[in-house]
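Lecture notes, continued. The same structure-token format from the folding unit now serves as the input rather than the output. Read the line below as a description of shape only.
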């Protein structure tokens, strides 16, 4: 290299290697020290984080090697004054170099892909005693369905999971592509209209973790979030029993508290107060229209339509398609009536 120029006679390979090793060591140490992910909450998380560490170990030296060669070349082979018209020596490739720079990356890729494939197959192995949960994504809400033997599935907008019980998620989308992601579990997969995708998870840590939509799916993408509650087996069974008999929990007599529905939702329907301002309920969110302004003086039919068919009429300054369209399913007829009655009484007061 560069012999004609009579400069840099000594190949600075040693210099490059020494600096490469130092830079790689710093890069790897920094990469491993940074906490990239939230707390692990599934048996899948450990192997995935380890896979990530292995990728740091390999990709940092590759990056450093490429960068050092580029910097070295820029410094040593740059055009000098008076060389503007020169075309450089007439060389035609270097077979040995080309074989080396093809073979090494190929080997690295094959090894990493094989390792990743083994890890991913291993953590998604079928387990005995798996619980199936259907995950349905739609603009802009998640619904989790727990199939019940010989009955309707139990639906919830929060994901309840018993600790240490393997779960198999069957993921679907009703409108556009979403992506079902629980960062604490490290698992994520697209929810695609017309397809059913799946993954397995075994939660192994009690707690409350975010569910995130990881695919840009429209204006409400950033609010398409929910929570995973990993609870004890006993707590899970209690919750399941409550969902099976929701009217019993309403305090008897069939009197449904519209205000409580507004503030807390019902387990299947997301709370209205999460997005709407309503003075009587003390909610101040501005994701959706201010209900004190928009529902004051409106009749029951108007309010009901706003809940079950939100896109029919959209308040000025707001867009169609943000509010979930599933309230007709997630609220019972009695709950819907109670909510409409409550809103009719308090909006604007
Ligand atoms: Cu659904 Cu982003």
């Amino acid at each position: 290299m560069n012999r004609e120029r009579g400069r840099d006679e000594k190949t600075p390979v040693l210099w490059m290697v020494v600096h490469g090793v130092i830079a790689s060591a710093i890069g790897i140490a920094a990469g491993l020290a940074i906490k990239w992910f939230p707390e692990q909450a599934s048996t899948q998380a450990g192997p995935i984080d380890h896979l990530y560490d292995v990728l740091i170990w390999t990709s940092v030296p590759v990056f450093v090697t490429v960068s050092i060669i580029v910097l070295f070349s820029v410094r040593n082979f740059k055009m000098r004054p008076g060389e503007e018209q020169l075309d450089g020596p007439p060389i035609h490739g270097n077979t040995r170099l080309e074989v080396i720079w093809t073979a090494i990356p190929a080997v690295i890729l094959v090894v990493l892909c094989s390792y990743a494939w083994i890890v991913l197959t291993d953590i998604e192995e079928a387990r005995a005693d798996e619980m199936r949960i259907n995950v349905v994504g739609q603009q802009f809400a998640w619904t989790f369905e727990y199939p019940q033997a010989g009955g309707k599935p139990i639906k919830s907008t929060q994901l309840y999971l018993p600790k240490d019980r393997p779960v198999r998620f069957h993921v679907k989308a009703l409108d556009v592509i979403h992506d079902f992601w629980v960062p604490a579990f490290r698992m994520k997969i697209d929810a695609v209209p017309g397809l059913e995708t799946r993954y397995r998870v075994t939660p192994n840590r009690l707690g409350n973790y975010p569910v995130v939509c990881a695919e840009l799916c429209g204006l409400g993408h950033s609010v398409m979030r929910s929570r995973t509650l990993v609870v004890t087996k006993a707590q899970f069974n209690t919750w399941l029993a409550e969902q099976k008999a929701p009217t019993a929990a309403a305090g008897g007599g069939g009197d449904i508290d519209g205000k409580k529905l507004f503030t807390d939702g019902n387990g299947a329907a997301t709370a209205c107060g999460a997005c709407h301002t309503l003075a009587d309920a003390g909610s101040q969110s501005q994701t959706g229209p201010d209900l004190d302004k928009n529902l004051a003086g409106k009749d029951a039919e108007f309010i009901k339509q706003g809940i079950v068919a939100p896109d029919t009429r959209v308040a000025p300054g707001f867009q169609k398609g943000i509010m979930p369209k599933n309230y007709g399913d997630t609220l019972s007829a009695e709950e819907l009536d109670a909510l409409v009655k409550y809103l009719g009484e308090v909006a604007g007061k």
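Point for the exam: Confidence is low (pLDDT under 50) at residues 1-7, 248-253.
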